[in-house]
Amino acid sequence: MENKFSLDFSFTQEQVKTFADVSGDNNPIHLDESYASTTTFKKRIIHGFLGASIFSRIFGTLYPGGGTIYLKQDLKFLAPMFVDTRYLATVEIIEVFREKKRAKLRTYIQDEAGNITIDGEALIKNTLFV
Q1: Most exposed among 41, 56, 62, 66, judged by the fewest C-beta atoms under 10 Å?
Q2: Exposed/middle/buried for 115, CB within 10 Å: 0-12, 13-18, 19+?
């Protein structure tokens, strides 16, 4: 298994609206273009946890894949993320704890210019870590 995995992704405004409905976070910064234009960001931003949810997709289905148990996630939200913008999510193994079948990974998202928007660390469990 490679020590690093990356995934290119973006979110639509429809997905932001669905996340707002599911989470109950209807902050107008995410949904109301008129309101958002008066903020420091000048346009709607996606929810930080919607952006970070890409790590759940990666761990559960792509790397290391099915059977992964997501145990912990620390996050720093460093810059806003916007709809219909390409991002690159990367997970990179920092340390493997073979006796517990766990791994600590750095998790981060970069915008098209290479700036980190979300940075953190995760702890996951998978039988592949033996």
Answers
A1: 66
A2: exposed
pLDDT in tens, 3-27: 999 999 999 999 999 999 999 999 9
Who's near 21: CB < 8 A, 6+ residues apart? none
Q: Residue 7: phi, psi to the nearest 5?
A: -140, 130
CATH architecture of 4-125: Roll (3.10)
Residue with tokens 């209807």: 26
> Residue 68 corresponds to which tokens in the numbers above?
């992964």
- Three-state helix/strand/coil letters over 30-61: HHCHHHHCCCCCCCCCCCHHHHHCHHHHHHHH
Sequence spans of domains, the chain:
4-125
